[in-house]
Amino acid sequence: MNSPTYVAGARLSGAQSRACTVPRGASVPSVARENCRIGEGTELTQSGKRKHIPQRTCIACRSKRPKRELVRIVRAPDGDVAVDKTGKQSGRGAYLCPTRECWHRALSEGLLSRALRVSLTEETRTCLDEYVAGF
Ligand SMILES: [Zn+2]
């Protein structure tokens, strides 16, 4: 009943972590990480266990996705709303899928201003529209 996670983890540790000879806990330079071809999104530790990946919910479609697959929009303490490309900006954040559909919904239905508790200025909307045009 509650064993599938365990079984999946055990299988992965046999098949994939053997290729990686970096000792567990060692700080791995990014070059070494690139050579270590673990499929994107799998994020396994050297022991083959699943790393904790922070999940966030898209404010438009409400689907949960790993944080780094979403775009963070942040309202800075001074009230400025901008796309937070680093994901580390301080302030109130909202997450959106990097799809036009979700962005348009968030803007047209006021979901973004509700999530950030701020009304979006024309300037901000233009900025966000320009950002989504690159998707
Ligand atoms: Zn979405």
Q: Can you describe this structure?
A:
This protein has 135 residues and is an alpha+beta fold. It has two domains: 38 residues, no CATH class; 79 residues, YlxR-like (Hypothetical Cytosolic Protein, Chain: A). 33% of the residues lie in helices and 15% in strands. It is built from five helices and five strands, in the order ααβββββααα. The strands form two sheets. It has a three-stranded antiparallel beta sheet. Helix 3 runs antiparallel to helix 5.
Core attributes:
Hypothetical Cytosolic Protein, Chain: A, alpha+beta, 5 helices, 135 residues, 3-stranded antiparallel β-sheet, elongated, binds zinc ion
CATH class of the largest domain: Alpha Beta
Lateral strand order in the biggest sheet: 4-3-5
**CATH-level-2 architecture of the largest domain:** 2-Layer Sandwich
| SSE-based structural type | alpha+beta
SSE string, helix = H, strand = E?
HHEEEEEHHH
| Number of strand segments | 5
Q: What is the assembly state of the chains in this entry?
A: single chain
Number of domains: 2
Name the beta content range.
5-15%
The biggest beta sheet is recorded as:
3 strands, antiparallel
Tally of contiguous helical segments: 5
Within CATH, the superfamily of the largest domain carries the name YlxR-like
In one word, what is the shape?
elongated
Q: How widely separated are the two ends? A: 41 Å
The helix fraction, in percent, is: 25-40%
Q: Spans of 5+ residues with little confidence (pLDDT < 50)?
A: 5-20, 31-39
- CATH topology term of the largest domain: Hypothetical Cytosolic Protein, Chain: A
Give the rounded overall mean pLDDT. 79
Rg computed from alpha carbons, rounded to a whole number of angstroms = 19 Å
Bound molecules: zinc ion
